[in-house]
UniProtKB/TrEMBL annotation:
One of its GO terms (cellular component) is Golgi membrane. It is a single-pass type I membrane protein. It holds the Pfam family Cadherin. Its main location: endoplasmic reticulum. Residues 1-20 form the signal peptide. It comes from Lepisosteus oculatus (Spotted gar). InterPro entries: Cadherin-like_dom, Cadherin-like_sf, CLSTN_C, ConA-like_dom_sf. The keyword Isomerase does not apply. The chain crosses the membrane at residues 848-869. This is Calsyntenin-3. Residues 904-956 are annotated as: Disordered. One of its GO terms (biological process) is homophilic cell adhesion via plasma membrane adhesion molecules. It is found in: Endoplasmic reticulum membrane; Golgi apparatus membrane; Postsynaptic cell membrane. Belongs to the calsyntenin family.
Length: 956
């Protein structure tokens, strides 16, 4: 009863209160904006101001209490990562915290909204109210969790020596932290001690002392980095500094000496050469490579043959007349001219004063007309190559006309005249078609080649009114000038002068008169030439094709460009006609360097002229800034052409030539070298790789060569033209393209031709004797050469032995005949000189086989004695069979018996193996019917002669 009373009281007391909570009149209130901070390693957000929610319904139960906070995105980010919780419902204190660990590096700031809710009117939260949404900004604070990392593990830089740099190199390290405190690199440090470098807090490295490349070329050291949280880099960086020598603009890799082995083809002159501009920007580069070969022959290495031989090798038209031939009895007009040494076989004539004039006789040029001819010559003017006296060929000297060739030609019914002259740097041809009617015409050329002091090849072809000039194979057009000035008409008489012009004048006494030796005409020479001339030829007809003219001048050595296809864009290359100057032009340094390395030297001669060729490289640069453009000094060096491998010219097929005298006395004579063989071998290094094989080798192989001369001469005294001669058909020699010189001292073949041609011609050379003038022996020597005697063969000697026929001797004693063989010393003095004035024409004493004869004669004398006894025994037997015989007839009349033995038969069989002498041997006297010719053995014949005198026969 009491319990029910207490429960009723409590219910009555709570009823009024429940009726009051139903009045939840106010919304909770919070700040409109919060700033929060949270650490990466924590989840509680520290807000400013703190999170509190207020409700005016307080202290009412439920209505005045805060039951929770709700997080919304609110247009921001990070709402899903945070949550808000109520710490005290009565005070409304709340807390914002992260649901998961935050990463400052991925997102440093978060923005969202938060809203507070009260507890409503009762425990079930009915009629609860919510506050407005407040914006919350949360910043994630960084933790130093990352260490610095260098951008590059290794740094390399090159610096020039001799300077202190403010900065050589900058190293850089990065930190993965997000905050400035921990993500910034506060300082760098050089770990390697005692290096002349320093580094600042920004990573800039500089040198602390002047660097010297000779002392130390490379420096290597280690650097590290620290962030502001004092965390060191996980891996240090390595720095390499190269100290370069002071940059000097110019060519690097220049080799002063370059060697060339003959037969190597094209060889690069500058394989490692490159241009250093020291980073100076240039827009044009020009390099001129000059090879100086003017000291070799006529300006370069050409075929070492005479001008006539070169003309034949180039296929030029024949019929030229050599106006300056070597002096000889038939060409004596050049005997008084001074000559200079020349590497080739062409004579170089010097003209330097009034006495140096060559008067060519009319007979030498009778075939050349005056209106259709070609004149060729080599000329050099200026410089110090002349002998004696000053020259006036320089540009600053007084310019006087100098005549090279002055010629008056007789035509059918008139005379024409022309002269080739030089005047300063001008070449002129004065042509007078008809001395009696037409006026002269002058063709003029202004050429640097006339006065530059170098050798040049000139070809002037006249087909009036057309005139063609080739200089070094290049055509030049003339300026046609009609000479209206007063000219003295030349004397209408055929004459040709080299080095001046002859003026006939008997009236002018103030001039220095002289007399022309051929005609006795008085006059004087004018317009003397001063310079060097060689190979001056005159030929009727037009000039040869351009290819022949180029061949006559062509150098066999010069500069060339290796591979034009590899020439880069913007590059240009130019080579002059003589290939002594090569010019390269471009705008890119790298392309230019590659092009320079392709410049080559080539020499197509198998036997190049050894020696030194000076080499020069001149460079000009154009820069964007003309004031500070680089200037490079010329480079000088030299090319050395090594000595070529010498060819071995071998002659074989000589030895002993044994023939009967009758063969030599025949109309054709006997061939001296019927089995001649000429071979040429060369020991050299060959490049078999170029032929698709591997490697190279040193070998000796047969090569196809061109001989230029062979000479046959007698050993000892010269030939006696009344008794002996060497015979060679001149017409056949000329058809083979060779020239023949036949004298008593030698017979010579000259001209560039193949070995086979020389073999055929020399095999037809025959030796002939006059009847009754046979000697005992003769020796002849043969030698050949090529490259104008530069390489010679061995001397091939042939010994000629004559087999004499034997008649009956006046002495019947065979012992005396034996003594004739046993004592040949009385003729030794005569044999040495090949003159046997008192020798019996039927004697047989071969000088080269004296020892053999002595032995053979002793043996044969024994055989003779045995033969005599054998004959006498046979005679006795025949007498016994006959029985009685008349007195005086019992003995055999052998008074005229003669036994003749030819010891040279055995000698011939051993030396030359030549049988058949008996058929050609002449026999005198009557042969016995019992001993016909040919019945005796080859080495012995018994010839029986009977005498008509009646006396007792002699026995042997």
């Amino acid at each position: 009863m009491g319990s029910f009373c207490v429960l009723g009281v409590l219910l009555l007391s709570l009823a009024p209160a429940g009726r009051c909570n139903k009045a939840n009149k106010h919304k909770p209130w919070i700040e409109t904006e919060y700033q929060g901070i949270v650490m990466e390693n924590d989840n509680t957000v520290l807000l400013n101001p703190p999170l509190f929610a207020l409700d005016k319904d307080a202290p009412l139960h439920y209505a005045g209490e805060i039951c929770g906070f709700r997080v919304h995105s609110g247009g921001g980010s990070g709402s899903s990562a945070f949550e808000a919780v109520v710490l005290d419902k009565t005070t409304g204190e709340g807390l914002i915290r992260a649901k998961e660990p935050l990463d400052c590096e991925s997102q440093r700031e978060h923005t969202f909204t938060v809203q507070a809710y009260d507890c409503g009117e009762g425990p079930d939260g009915t009629n609860s109210k919510k506050s407005h949404k407040a914006t919350v900004h949360v910043r994630v604070n960084d933790v130093n969790e990352f260490s610095p990392v260098f951008v590059e593990k290794q740094y390399q830089v090159s610096v020039s020596e001799g300077r202190l740099f403010d900065r050589i190199l900058r190293v850089e390290a990065l930190d993965g932290d997000c905050s400035p405190q921990y993500s910034q690199i506060c300082f760098y440090d050089i770990v390697t001690p005692n290096v002349p470098f320093a580094i600042d807090n920004d990573g800039n490295i500089k040198n602390t002392e002047v660097l010297d490349s000779r002392r130390q070329r490379f420096y290597r050291f280690t650097v590290t980095a620290f962030d502001c949280g004092k965390s060191r880099a996980t891996a240090d960086a390595e720095v390499t500094v190269e100290v370069k020598p002071t940059c000097k603009p110019g060519w690097i890799g220049w080799s002063k000496r370059v060697e060339y082995t003959p037969g190597s083809g094209g060889v690069p002159l500058f394989p490692t050469l490159h241009l250093e501009t020291c980073e100076e920007p240039v827009w044009n580069i020009q390099a001129t490579v000059e090879l100086q070969t003017n000291h070799i022959g006529k300006g370069c290495d050409r075929d070492s043959y005479s001008d006539r031989s070169v003309r034949r090798l180039c296929g030029a038209v024949r019929g030229e007349v050599d106006l300056l031939p070597p002096p000889s009895p038939s060409t004596n007009w050049t005997a008084a001219l001074p000559t200079l040494p020349s590497p080739d076989s062409s004579l170089v004539f010097s003209f330097n004063n009034s006495a140096h004039v060559a008067v060519v006789p009319p007979r030498a040029v009778a075939m050349v007309s005056g209106d259709h001819f070609t004149l060729q010559l080599w000329m050099k003017r200026g410089g110090g190559a002349l002998q004696g006296g000053p020259t006036n060929t320089g540009r600053g000297a007084k310019r006087e006309e100098e005549t090279i060739v002055c010629n008056t030609v007789k035509n059918d019914d008139s005379f024409s005249h022309y002269s080739l002259s030089v005047h300063g740097c001008r070449l002129s041809l004065l042509y007078w078609p008809d001395l009696g009617a037409a006026r002269p015409v002058k063709f003029l050329w202004k050429l640097e080649q006339v006065c530059d002091g170098e050798w040049h090849h000139f070809v002037v072809s006249v087909e009036f009114p057309a005139v063609t000039l080739y200089v070094d194979g290049v055509t030049f057009d003339p300026a046609l000038i009609h000479d209206n000035g007063p000219l003295r008409s030349p004397t209408p008489r055929p004459r040709l002068f080299i080095g001046a012009c002859w003026v006939s004048d008997d009236k002018e006494k103030d001039l220095q008169n002289s007399t022309l030796a051929e005609t006795g005409e008085t006059g004087y020479y004018q317009a003397h030439f001063r310079g060097l001339l060689a190979g001056v030829t005159l030929r009727p007809g037009s000039v040869e094709p351009h290819s022949v003219v180029e061949c006559l001048y062509a150098c066999r050595e010069g500069l060339d460009f290796g591979d034009l296809e590899s020439l880069g864009t913007g590059m240009k290359v130019h080579v002059n006609p003589s290939q002594s100057v090569l010019v390269l032009e471009g705008d890119d340094v790298e392309s230019f360097n590659r092009a320079v390395q392709q410049v080559t030297y080539r020499n197509s001669l198998r036997f190049a002229t050894p020696g030194v060729r000076p080499l020069k490289l001149a460079t000009s640069l154009r820069c964007f800034s003309e004031e500070g453009c680089l200037s490079l000094r010329p480079l000088e060096g030299y090319l050395v052409v090594l000595q070529p491998d010498a060819p071995q010219i071998s002659l074989s097929g000589g030895g002993h030539l044994v023939r009967p005298v009758g063969d030599f006395e025949a109309a054709r004579g006997v061939a001296l070298f019927p089995e001649l063989r000429i071979t040429c071998s060369l020991s050299h290094s060959i490049n078999t790789a170029a032929e698709g094989m591997e490697g190279g080798a040193l070998m000796s192989d047969a090569v196809a060569h061109t001989l230029d001369g062979c000479e046959v001469s007698p050993v000892g005294e010269e030939l006696d033209p009344e008794r002996e001669e060497l015979v060679l058909e001149a017409e056949s020699v000329r058809e083979r393209g060779l020239e023949l010189t036949n004298t008593t001292a030698y017979i010579a073949l000259t001209g560039p031709e193949s070995i086979s041609v020389y073999e055929d011609v020399l095999r037809s050379l025959r030796y002939r004797l006059a009847r009754g003038s046979a000697l005992f022996e003769r020796r002849f020597r043969l030698s050949c050469s090529e490259m104008n005697g530069r390489y010679t063969s061995n001397e091939l000697t042939v010994e000629v032995n004559f087999l004499h026929s034997l008649d009956g001797l006046s002495h019947p004693s065979h012992l005396l005949a034996s003594q004739q063989f046993l004592h040949p010393s009385r003729h030794s003095g005569e044999l040495a000189g090949h003159t046997l004035a008192h020798a019996h024409r039927n004697s047989v004493v071969p000088g080269a086989a004296t020892v053999i004869i002595v032995v053979c004669v002793g043996f044969l004398a024994l055989m003779v004695v045995l033969g005599i006894f054998r004959i006498r025994s046979i005679h006795r037997r025949s007498d016994g069979q006959k029985g009685g015989a008349k007195e005086g007839g019992s003995e055999w009349d052998d008074s005229a018996l003669t036994i003749i033995v030819n010891p040279m038969e055995s000698y011939e069989s051993r030396v030359s193996g030549d049988g058949g002498m008996d058929g050609d041997e002449e026999e005198e006297g009557e042969e016995s019917p019992e001993s016909p010719p040919g019945d005796a053995p080859d080495d012995q014949q018994i010839i029986i002669k009977r005498d008509c005198r009646e006396h007792a026969p002699r026995r042997y």
